[in-house]
């Protein structure tokens, strides 16, 4: 298990990037680390990888502080991609595998498997600079995976990917998690995080403002009543709690309070009710509430 406890980091000039950040990523768990730009996600990941030193706090792996030897067994995908632009795709993945201690034969076998899984086989002899951004992302992921890491830490791995590439990458990460590997990744794509992750941590201005399983966070947020009325009369929702949005000829009311039967009566009287039901809060809604 990866344990992050009480991380604090202050940069020159007085900016506090992290203020007591802590969370856990368990074996076989996909953990989504979300927050606005500048919230502290990348700083946290760099401290875990030893790229930055924290002013306080600790990072532990399997109950022991992380050291250089342990970090060699981590698969890391940084925010700033670190590929050799002139090197061929397959050659590059094999090279990084050998840097992690793999034999040439083992690195080659693992590379061939990853090229197939990430649909890069036809580009194996292309220079990285000739690839699209999405394909460069796939190569970077292959570099992080080639040595069969015990832990995966990925900073915005889905950035710039098309839907097909997102699905391919998601499948690979889910397979690694099913094999017992803890997977920590950051992303701004909250719908994707909600779909993929077992647990989520929300960071805002260097502090953790929410953490837990998706189900736990949704339960804490409660349910909201959503009402969709087509052809509604203007003003039908006046005085009702919640937010009303007009989408063409549809009025959409979302509320977590009030008399649901009274709301239904007014909706039926006003127009054609297309939807009336309680829904769990989305991760996007939870995020907005947590960072407000």
TrEMBL record:
Gene3D superfamilies: P-loop containing nucleotide triphosphate hydrolases. Residues 2-230 form the ABC transporter domain. InterPro entries: AAA+_ATPase, ABC_transporter-like_ATP-bd, ABC_transporter-like_CS, ABC_transporter_ATP-binding, DrrA1/2-like_C, P-loop_NTPase. One of its GO terms (biological process) is response to antibiotic. GO terms for molecular function: ATP binding; ATP hydrolysis activity. It comes from the Bacteria. It is a peripheral membrane protein. Keywords: Antibiotic resistance, ATP-binding, Nucleotide-binding, Transport. The keyword ATP-binding applies. SUPFAM superfamilies: P-loop containing nucleoside triphosphate hydrolases. Its main location: membrane. It is found in: Cell membrane. Transmembrane segments: none annotated. GO terms for cellular component: plasma membrane. The keyword Cell wall biogenesis/degradation does not apply. Belongs to the ABC transporter superfamily. PANTHER family: ABC TRANSPORTER ATP-BINDING PROTEIN, ABC TRANSPORTER ATP-BINDING PROTEIN NATA. This is ABC-2 type transport system ATP-binding protein. It comes from Nonomuraea soli.
């Amino acid at each position: 298990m990866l344990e992050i406890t009480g991380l604090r980091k202050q940069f020159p000039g007085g900016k506090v990037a992290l203020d007591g950040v802590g969370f856990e990523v368990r074996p076989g768990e996909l953990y989504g680390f979300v927050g606005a730009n500048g919230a502290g996600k990348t700083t946290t990941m760099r401290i875990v990888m030893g790229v930055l030193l924290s002013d306080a706090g600790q990072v532990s792996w399997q109950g022991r502080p992380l050291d250089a030897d342990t970090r060699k067994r981590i698969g890391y995908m940084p925010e700033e991609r670190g590929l050799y632009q002139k090197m061929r795709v397959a050659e590059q993945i094999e090279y990084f595998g050998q840097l992690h201690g793999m034999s040439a034969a083992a690195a080659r076998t693992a590379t061939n498997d990853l090229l197939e899984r990430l649909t890069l086989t036809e580009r194996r002899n292309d220079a990285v600079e000739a690839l699209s951004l999405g394909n460069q992302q796939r190569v970077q992921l292959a570099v992080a995976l080639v040595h069969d890491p015990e832990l995966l830490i990925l900073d915005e791995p889905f950035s710039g990917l098309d839907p097909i590439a997102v699905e391919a990458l998601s499948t690979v990460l889910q397979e690694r998690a099913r094999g017992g590997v803890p997977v920590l990744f950051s992303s701004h794509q909250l719908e994707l995080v909600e779909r993929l992750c077992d647990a989520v941590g929300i960071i805002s201005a260097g502090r953790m403002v929410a953490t837990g399983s998706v189900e736990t966070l949704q339960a804490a947020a409660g349910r909201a009543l959503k009402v969709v009325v087509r052809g509604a009369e203007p003003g039908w929702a006046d005085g009702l709690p919640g937010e009303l949005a007009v989408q063409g000829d549809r009025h959409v009311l979302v509320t977590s309070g009030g008399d649901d039967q009274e709301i239904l009566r007014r909706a039926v009287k006003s127009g054609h009710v297309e939807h009336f039901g309680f829904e769990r809060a989305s991760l996007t809604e939870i995020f907005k509430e947590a960072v407000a």
